[in-house]
Amino acid sequence: MNDIEIIAAFLFALALVHTFATKSFGRLADRHPKHAGLFHLLGEIEVVFGFWALVLFAAIAVTDGGKQAIDYVESRQYTEPLFVFVIMVVAASRPVLEAVKGFVRILAGLAPFRLAVARVWLCLAVVPLIGSLITEPAAMTLAALMLAPLVFRQGVPEWQKYAALGVLFVNISIGGTLTSFAAPPVLMVASTWKWDSVFMATTFGWKACCAVLINASAVTFLIHKHLADDAPEAGAETQVRVPVLVSAIHLLFLAGIVLFAHHPVIFMGVFLFFLGFSHAYSAYQSPLILKEGLLVGFFLAGLVVLGGMQQWWLQPIVARLEPTALFFGALALTAITDNAALTYLGSLIEGISEQAKYMLVAGAVAGGGLTVIANAPNPAGVALLRDGFEDESIGVGGLLLGAIPPTIVAGLFFLL
Q1: pTM above the 0.85 mark?
Q2: CB 115 within 8 A of CB 108
Q3: What's the whole-number mean pLDDT along residues 203-226?
């Protein structure tokens, strides 16, 4: 442990406090209109970790020199932030969204209850489980866009919105555990511990399915009285019908990006081709969510920079805990750090038992909905849904309270 690691831990703590205080900056903007722009910027939850990562960069430059600061930043891996940005933009494109909406509409028509209720349940249950194939960030993007006009709107009580948000975040976190490549915390250990998709489906997957279905059913029943069958669908403002071929090509772009998710040079190349194709067939497009995607990528990149210097205190905690205590410790630690970073630290521990491996990952994914930083797709959900809440912002306390019940359900199943 050296001075800069202590400074990094202190800045990480300040970033966490800042995350909980983002709504306060909105009030400061109202009181000090001269600097309202700055306060609104600091009140954007996606800006928090990027801002404090900049402060850490400056601190390293002052204490160790500019070259060391540049070397540290360049030593970090930014594949995940880049991937989340790219997959958000592609998954939210109108042809992909229309294709998924069509699938949901067909299933909803077969359900024995109201159309709006069926659509919400499918978005909270089926779409998170599809995340095991298309990755969790893509599932979060699609579910959030389809739920926004149904649940996260005026007329739905605020506390019920937070209950639905908590279920969405938890279900996305555990819904990607049916395979070994879709959930970031699983991906961090799958290769090292030789966990393939068959192992994940038989060890984690069936438990995750049970928890997802219970959580989705409970919150849908809770809010069903406020769901209107005539609520507009996402993207309904665009009248031009998307040709099947255009949708198919967009889905191929999505599949290619998922296939090369660990190769940023390739998936960024695919993304550039996607941008060109989207521009060529702009008549079938809604505006791409480039701003939202970039903000989420900025948030995650800041978390990568700040989190890279937390190993000195996080790893000893993980290494000392017995399996059952490790489950609850991982669940709690996930609330204050990215769950993928937590499982990565666990993968570095030599001689860790099979039971401890399971408990570490189970705790990390079960706690993935507790806070914005707990799971990589969560900032995407915040960026796409915050306009549906009061003050157009999502309170950290409200999210935590909304996520606790579904987290308990997920935790009980994973402890079986």
Answers
A1: yes
A2: yes
A3: 96
